[in-house]
Amino acid sequence: MFGRKNNGVSExxxxxxxxxxxxxxxxxxxxxxxxxxxxxxxxxxxxxxxMLTTPACPLKNVMQRDCELALRRDIPAxxxxxxxxxxxxxxxxxxxDVGANFRNTIAIxxxxxxxxxxxxxxxxxxxxxxxxxxxxxxxxxxLGPNVPMMMGKQDKPPVVNKRIQPSESYGVKFxxxxxxxxxxxxxxxxxxxxxxxxxxxxxxxxxxxxxxxxVDLPPGTGDASLSLAQAIPLSGVVIVTQxxxxxxxxxxxxxxxxxxxxxxxxxxxxxxxxEFFGEGAGQKLxxxxxxxxxxxxxxxxxVRIGGDMGTPVTDAKPxxxxxxxxxxxxxxxxxxxxxxxxxxxxxxxxxxMVG
Length: 355
What we know:
Blueprint: E1 5-6, E2 9-10, H1 11-18, E3 36-42, E4 45-52, H2 60-74, E5 81-87, H3 93-96, E6 105-110, H4 117-130, E7 135-139, H5 147-151, E8 159-160, E9 163-164, E10 167-169, E11 172-176, H6 191-203, E12 212-216, H7 223-231, E13 236-241, H8 245-260, E14 265-273, H9 281-289, E15 293-298, H10 301-309, H11 313-316, H12 321-345
């Protein structure tokens, strides 16, 4: 592999230098993580690809800076440094056992209704898709499905070869009971029927290959959350709360439930932060529960308008403070899932390319 040399610049020297660069989230060097690919040398110029663990990596600029500093420090003769980027999202090892086509499952949960959990789920899914990930969104709130309205598409999905074809908006595949029943129709279902619907959404929908399946759970700690956790291994859970103490006191119940189910909790999102609702309860909840605080989403009329009109703020107003917050939260969630994958496997060797 090594040995080619041009003007004092060799593959061996380049790889040795890059082996001193530490991936900021995984805390191991890029070479041992097998993240340096397709190295080529043309005179004193080099080109290589960094294979990320997620296209939503929040620290690409840090890695690029550290690589260039290391190479120019260690190889004075080096010329232009050209870095390409690709991503291969690691798969939750437990999902291999259930034959799922998605690499990771992310549950969005809350202790009570009205905190904007579906808003977080929709905008986080769109943010991940815009960063280049393959994303699905499952609306597990069977009795109160809001995702079709928020995604701007409410047509009944077709069935092909006995498999439901998911709808798609903003680069995200999604399924919801709201697509399958007439608008405004009430479902009066007991627990077993809810459980069956969620399992069917997991197994009878033609999701294809997904990097992330985001699951919008109903509020509280009822049957749907338990059914999901029992039906498929969760890569992680995001807890959504409002800035008020009363909302956080309900959210802690969801934290405790998922901890009892041994589901990794990725962190807390404080939604609708601002002068009217206040701020700080989400961060306090995270500190008291010993989990990460993923960030705050400011109260913004564009979020409400986007949800009502089917034009989510991450797409309609990408530069707004709320959209920026959703993007940062999505990046943090993806990074934490990569860290968990490394910790659970003991090693990370991304082999195939994400298409």
